[in-house]
Design a protein that fits this description.
- By secondary structure, this protein is mainly α.
- The chain contains 15 helices and 4 strands.
- About 10% of the residues have low confidence.
Length: about 300
């Protein structure tokens, strides 16, 4: 390897780290631009953009670099471990401005097709955000992706990564935050995927405690609130499970409960309910619990109405 000064070696390492290029390519590009790192990066991405000939390719490169930043936080720099791990996920959501106890985090992980609560794959990350349009350059501004990439890599190099670099993703958050409560398709997809996130590897069910935590998160505003004018469904469901049900929660029980929730919100009088329906036994029992609660409430109201003193 040719002899380089310490400054030049550092530039080569930084160039290679943010572009995944070989040291020889990094050295050649830097040398042709008088060892100016910014100019070399600009030229490198210009060449790649021109070679690809498409804004979509440039946008995908932006997403790849963004992914690499969070992946590298966990030290997963090898292609064999091409995932964002727990620490990277925490930093990513912090940069997005999403708290870890917000229900929208479950929606985002579902959209990213995350295999577990603390992992995000490159394919899931790039596929979703590309579909959302955040990686594409606006028409008439073919170099915007390149400008973004150069600025992004500059910040990577100087360890000054800022949440401002993912404004295009943050701009999606207002609509994502309301989607669980207003879009049934989003709620259904997120609810179904949450079981996968909660499941411990090699297990077929999740603990009741874990299920209750996720139900509280998914079935309380600002997500879809499982309450109707006369029935506090979620509170009664939690009370029922904690007093009458001590088993784990299977995939079937989880998914059928999601269907049950939507049915209750459509018709709290349960005109759709049938004892001959193919519901899990636990939900049959819960319906009986609800009817008993309602009968007790009605009897109490009648007692109050007729409880006046006679003179």
């Amino acid at each position: 390897m040719p002899s380089y000064t310490p400054v030049q070696k550092s530039a080569i390492q930084q160039f290679a780290a943010v572009t995944d290029a070989k040291d020889s390519v990094a050295a050649k590009t830097l040398k042709s631009h008088n060892w100016n790192l910014d100019h070399a990066l600009d030229a490198y991405y210009n060449a790649k953009s021109n070679k690809s000939g498409s804004n979509e390719s440039s946008g995908t490169q932006n997403l790849d670099r963004l992914f690499n930043h969070y992946r590298d936080i966990d030290g997963n720099k090898s292609e064999e471990a091409d995932i964002i791990g727990v620490e990277g996920c925490i930093k990513y959501f912090a940069d997005l401005g999403v708290a870890l106890d917000e229900p929208v985090i479950l929606l985002i992980l579902a959209e990213l097709n995350a295999p577990t609560m603390g992992e995000v794959s490159r394919q899931g990350f790039t596929d979703y955000w590309r579909r959302s349009g955040v990686s594409a350059c606006p028409k008439g501004e073919p170099n915007q992706g390149l400008v973004f990439a150069t600025k992004l890599t500059y910040n990577f190099v100087h360890k000054n990564y800022s949440a401002a670099e993912i404004q295009s993703q943050k701009a999606q958050l207002p609509s994502l935050r309301t989607a669980l409560a207003t879009r049934q398709d989003s709620f259904k997809a997120t609810y179904k995927h949450t079981f996968k996130l909660a499941l411990v590897p090699s297990q077929r069910s999740i603990s009741l405690e874990t299920a209750l935590d996720y139900w509280r998160l998914l079935l309380t505003a600002p997500s879809l609130a499982w309450n109707t004018p006369t029935t506090p469904w979620l509170d009664w469901f939690v009370e029922f499970l904690e007093t009458k049900w001590k088993k784990g929660v299977s995939k079937d029980m989880w998914e059928q409960t999601g269907v049950f929730v939507l049915k209750c919100l459509e018709d709290e009088d349960m005109g759709w309910w049938s004892e001959d329906g193919a519901w899990p036994g636990v939900l049959d029992e819960f319906v009986g619990f609800v009817k008993e609660k309602r009968s007790t409430a009605v009897a109490g109201e009648e007692g109050k109405a007729g409880g006046g003193m006679e003179l």
